[in-house]
Amino acid sequence: MIVYFPEPYENELYYSLLARYHSYSTDIAASSTLRELSGTTKRINFDVPMGIDNLISKIKKFSNLYSKDYFIQYHTIIPIIKPFRKLEWIENLKKSDFKGQKSNLFGNTEKDVKSKEHLYYCSECLKEQLEEYGEGYWNRVHQMPGIYVCTYHRKALSEHFINIRNNKEINFYLPKIEESYKMQKNYNEYVLTSLLNLAEDVEYLLEKNFDAFPEEYYYEKYVTLMEIKGIAYPVLQRENRLKSLMTSYYPPEFLEILNSDLNNSSWLPKFTSNKIVNNLHPIRHLLLMRLLSGSARDFYENEYLYKPFGTGPWICMNPLADHYLKKVVKKVDVSVHGLNRTIQGDMKCSCGFIYRVRAWEQSPLDIKYFNNRIMQKGHIWEQKFNDLIEHKLTITEISNIIKMSRPTVSKILRDRKKLTKTDLKEEEKNKKVNKKTSEYKEIWLDLRAKHPKYYRNELNNTNRAVYTWLRKYDNEWLEANSPKIKKRNYVRKIIL
Ligand SMILES: [Zn+2]
Ligand SMILES: [Zn+2]
């Protein structure tokens, strides 16, 4: 029976708790302590709370706080992975009591951000811990992949000598002050700043303890941010433009430390599908977030909207509307130009007038060939234009009023005439067809009355012309007014 359990310190790694318990226990063998606390004798997995069910059953008498979720949230590195996985990921881990978990929770490959092979600690933090509590412990933040600095003391961490990935022995270590200065790196100012920023973003994720986000969340937010940065289009160049932005933003040594330099191969998502984004290592997500939005906090807490044309309202460009040049247009449809893949906006006014603006154009009044940008003139324009013609205005007068050149006005008038002519012709033709169809229907009904016993095919043969016409112009009527189709008697061939 356990008569004592150390009270966890802030951000203390789960393993550190077991190690501290061991340092007070009378058990000399670490394996006995591990068995007692976690119910297992397997090698230690530093990423997960090993045997958490067993431990809670033994220590819950010491505090109501102790639960599986409590240890996961405050004493493991899981909160930085959880927001990037599906909800089932953590649920399944919890259900299985973290059994059968590989020694690396990130499941990363050679090319990914490397998980740490050693435990890390800050020598300054350790000094303070020793002064305040008389003992040191492992801070979970310092064990995260990519974290090599203490944000509190703004200096490099020390690396403990034991390799936690290869070590098969069960042992409990705690940081020691006399070892701390040997394994401490020096980073230049730029690298240090980048490392500190990344550590701050990791701390933000720990503080928030987010659950899984919807599948499209990251993809959509990154794309919006790329749009705002002006690197989203053309789509096929997103990855390259993102790469240039990233290599100019982060010092190369910093990206190398994270195994994320972009010299030889690119780990950047292509951003043509959201699945690829969801496979990214959490640290690489944080790199993207800071690059595109300033920090993880900004990324998660701000809503980003891509508004290449500002917030509006925009002016109406319909010279025939009462509100010409007034800011009354409230709707803009943003799209990507089919050929050159640039951003364009269709300004849709309530008067029916629609004009197109490109993303870099400041004002529609500066567009040189504005007539080419009129996508739709709308009902008000058409109505007023008809009035002008009815009042017998000259082409020059019309041209002045509708703000179009004289040749354009002439063309509009010519097109209208052509249209009216074609309309008339079409109408005439329809009349003829309808007349003939009615006549043929009469003939067809007469034929049916004359030959009441005829099957469909026999009746068709009596007047092919009528049948073909009706089939073409009113098949529905023909179907409803035709006799049955004669069923054929098929003779089944018997093959012997
Ligand atoms: Zn520190
Ligand atoms: Zn308008």
Task: Give structural attributes.
binds zinc ion; 496 residues; disordered C terminus; 4 domains; two-stranded antiparallel ribbon; elongated
Topology (SSEs and partners):
Layout: H1 14-24, H2 30-38, H3 52-59, H4 68-75, H5 87-95, E1 118-121, H6 123-133, E2 149-150, E3 155-156, E4 158-163, H7 189-208, H8 217-229, H9 238-249, H10 252-257, H11 274-278, H12 282-293, H13 296-301, E5 314-315, E6 327-329, E7 331-336, E8 343-348, E9 354-358, E10 374-376, H14 378-390, H15 395-402, H16 406-450, H17 456-462, H18 464-473, H19 475-480
Antiparallel strand pairs: 1-4, 2-3, 5-6, 7-8, 8-9, 9-10
Helix pairs in contact: 7-12, 8-12, 15-16, 16-18
The structure holds zinc ion (2 copies).
Question: Would you give an account of this structure?
Answer:
It is a single chain. Helix 8 (217-229) runs parallel beside helix 12 (282-293) and helix 15 (395-402) packs across helix 16 (406-450). The chain has 4 domains: 14-193, no CATH class; 213-301; 314-375, no CATH class; 428-480. The chain has helices at 14-24, 30-38, 52-59, 68-75, 87-95, 123-133, 189-208, 217-229, 238-249, 252-257, 274-278, 282-293, 296-301, 378-390, 395-402, 406-450, 456-462, 464-473, 475-480; strands at 118-121, 149-150, 155-156, 158-163, 314-315, 327-329, 331-336, 343-348, 354-358, 374-376. It has 19 helices and 10 strands. It has a 4-stranded antiparallel β-sheet, with no helix packed on it. Strands 1-4 form a two-stranded antiparallel ribbon. A two-stranded antiparallel sheet has the order 2-3. The protein is 44% helix and 8% strand. The chain is α+β, with helices and mostly antiparallel strands. The site of one zinc ion (ZN) has 8 residues, from loops.
